[in-house]
Amino acid sequence: MSRKIKVQWGSGLVELTWKTQVPMPPMEKITSVHGCCFDQGKVLLVHIKGRGFTFPGGHIEAGETPEEAFHREVLEEGSVRGSASRIGMIEVSHENNPEFDSKGKYPLIGYQVFYRMDIEEVFPFIRNNESTCRIWVEPAEIPYVIDDHELALEAFKEAVKADLNTIV
Questions:
Q1: 12, 13, 31, 111: most buried, per Cβ within 10 A?
Q2: Which Gene3D superfamilies does the entry link to (predicted)?
Q3: Domains in the chain, start-ordered, CATH in brackets?
């Protein structure tokens, strides 16, 4: 399954494609990891400075796998731990972006990998990274609270229907 949209990122137009049931891309093409985290029927959102309320996630550090990075980011931004499985990814294409910098830190075509997490531990929230707060939201409220593009909602829909025992 895939769905494409075009979004304005900075001064350039970028094409985003939501993809499920596809192999993991090469590590050098993965630009970030994100995820939908569930606890007792509610969804964790974090408020990131400059971005608003969103799903926790971020960049992969040297020596980390994407899943390790996701677990670290969720702990840093949301102060939670749990079991996670990959649900899909957003392909980010700058092929038609005249502002693309081929010498910049992002590849011409990159990927944001998404996970579903079932939270097992909740710790006191600490504002020691870029997140200023966390909130627990009813699933039906996500479209009204999240400050992101519509493919984030596609990822959320995939996370809702995902069964951790059958995810590829």
A1: 111
A2: Nucleoside Triphosphate Pyrophosphohydrolase (3.90.79.10)
A3: 2-161 (3.90.79.10)
